[in-house]
Each structure stands twice: as C-alpha cells, then as structure tokens.
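Posted in: Protein Modeling Q&A

I'm a second-year student putting together a small comparison for a lab meeting, and my supervisor asked me to include a predicted structure for Bacterial toxin 28 domain-containing protein. I've never done this before, so apologies if this is the wrong subforum. The sequence is pasted below exactly as I got it from our records. If anyone can share the structure token output, I'd also love a short note on what stands out.
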Amino acid sequence: ILREKMEGKSDSNHSIKDVEVKAVEGTGNGGRIFSSVDDLSDIAKSKITTSQRATLNQQERTYSHLTEMDLKGAQRDLVGDPVPKPGGGYYDHAQEVSDAYRGLVDLNRSWEGMLKNPNLDNELRQLYASKLNEVNATMKKIEDMFAPNGGVYPPK
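Accepted answer (user: helix_wrangler)
Welcome! Here is the predicted structure, written out as tokens:
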C-alpha cells in the first residue's frame, strides 16, 4: 500500500493510516511486528480490557473518516474548490477531517494513559505504542495540511 500511495496508484478507500503504519509499527520479541490485534498471541489478546477494546474500535471508526477521498476533498475545500454533491450543494470534507482530528486528540490521550500502566502486557504495550505513533503521525499530517488556512477547523 505504501509503495502504491507514493507512486500515486492508491485505492481511494485506503486511509491516511495505511501510509503512516509502515513507519510506526511496534516490533516485538524476535522481530515480530504488532500493528494489529491479529498480530498478538492468544494470551495477549485475552488481556485486552473492555476499555482498551473500545479505544481500538474508536481508532478504526476515526480512520474511516480519513480516507484518501476525504483528505483530497479537504484539500480541495481548503483551496476554495469544494466537491459538489450529486443532488446539489457541496461536501464539507474539511469539517469532516477536522472532526476526525479531534477524535485523534482523544485517542492520543487514551493511548498515553494506557501506556502509563506498569503492569501492561509487553505485546499490548508494543501494539498500543504503535497505535499512539500512528495517531501522532496522522495528527501531524492533518495539522500540516490545515496550517496555511489557520489550522484545524473548530467543531460546528
């Protein structure tokens, strides 16, 4: 996915996280990479709390509003060329991405809090550090995109 995005051949359904994840994945014992719950051992999976599961789910929901199409639409909004809706009016991609950004701020706080737990399983610590790095990299990309226009939009 990363190579395709760099070459401009990406599928518009991939999100910004697809680009970021390659640079921020956590590496576990023996060089194992923990970028998804699927990468964890069964023992580590069994240690995921309800709150941690909710944060993992929130991250997936947030990134569903940061697809390549959303980001391209936001870029168009920022230069005064909004994407028209088929039935009239315009999409507000810049607001959608700004709202998703606020979700990333919440995720950042959640991951940082979880990582302060000294009893956190090592695999989970690596996964959550990877998720935190992913969130931080995405926030930086969005901040950079919006900076020339006064920053990320406030909530409506």
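A couple of things worth pointing out for your meeting: The radius of gyration is 17 Å. The chain has one domain: 2-149.
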